[in-house]
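Tutorial, part two.
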Amino acid sequence: MPADHAADASVPKRNSRDGNAQIIATVFVTFVGYLTIGLPLAVLPTYVHGTLGYSTVMAGFVISIQYIATVLTRAQVGRIADTRGPKRTVIWGLMAGFASGVLLLASALLEGVPALGLGLLLASRLALGIGESLIGTGAIAWAIGRVGPEYTARIIAWNGVSTYGALALGAPAGVYLMGLLGFASLGVSVMLLAALGLAIALPKPATAMVGGEGRLGVGRVLSRVLLPGIALALATAGFGTITTFITLFYASRGWEGAAFALSVFGVAFMACRLIFADTINLYGGLKVAIVSLVLQFVGLMVVWSADAPAMALIGAGLAGFGFSLVFPAIGVQAVASVPAANRGSALGLYSMFLDVSLGITGPAAGLIASCFTSATPFLFGGIATVGSLAITLLLAAKGRSRQSA
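Running the prediction step on this input gives:
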């Protein structure tokens, strides 16, 4: 891969159609990479508990260890993207995905020795978590480098659509493959997908990197993305309560259609990202985030107070529509707060707040539900969303003060 040396000024000006094509070509690599994550996701608990014979607690740990690996490597991966180049970061991520497939296949072949099968499976999940971190951060930085920072909001939004779309497609595909060809087929499929991603990514040009003269240390980058990151984490708590507890909420009321509520939530989320991503450039990230958070709060309050399935359905749709643009809208602020040489580090650290929030929200909301009612987690999510809105308003006020000065 060629050494990168030029600054952002070397990115040629592109028309919108050319820019969109470049973004789609890059985020498609993300789509392929996240298919490797989605394929085994739905079948792992059954495999660990039913085939290997371990407890449900261990089955949950096998799922969680991937996200732990992702969180712990976010900061380092951001620095790799800044210093070694985002293309190389993505390539390494796909290679980690390929290694995960090899380990997954080995686990299936050695399932007769449960301890060894479990150990290989845990190693596979660790490799996949590292790969997710590398691809998730590297692809966004790569796309920004290819088309310019003015496309940041669109890149983050479309990259998110490819991520969630791959997970949504990969999970049922994995269940189908498991039933048709057995668990070993998932390892082979993950390897093939990672190889496909490498075949797509390798011919694409590397982007010019900014020189390191103005590069900040990790601590200073973290201090600059701290408030946007906390705002994201609080908003994500609202998102997490919907995805984690809507099915239990429906069951506690004796309602049917919880899966449909999740579908409405997901469709509203992706439709908003596809249709309204450019409003961030038109009106500013913080203004869009404020409107989005108000919509998310209203949606969560509708679910919390719902006395009929249709009402909960409307609330879930509003919450999905509202949360959709929060990550890219506040993310633009986070990326803009650091020099271009720290773009990868800012993206990695900012994304870490989402990972941590999702890890905490499930247990916290479960504790709240056990102490109060099945609807209370949505009130908790609404309160967290108000906290996110308060921080976003503070960031907007600071921005206005700087402009006045």
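DSSP finds 15 helices and no strands in the chain. In part three we will examine how such features are distributed along the chain.
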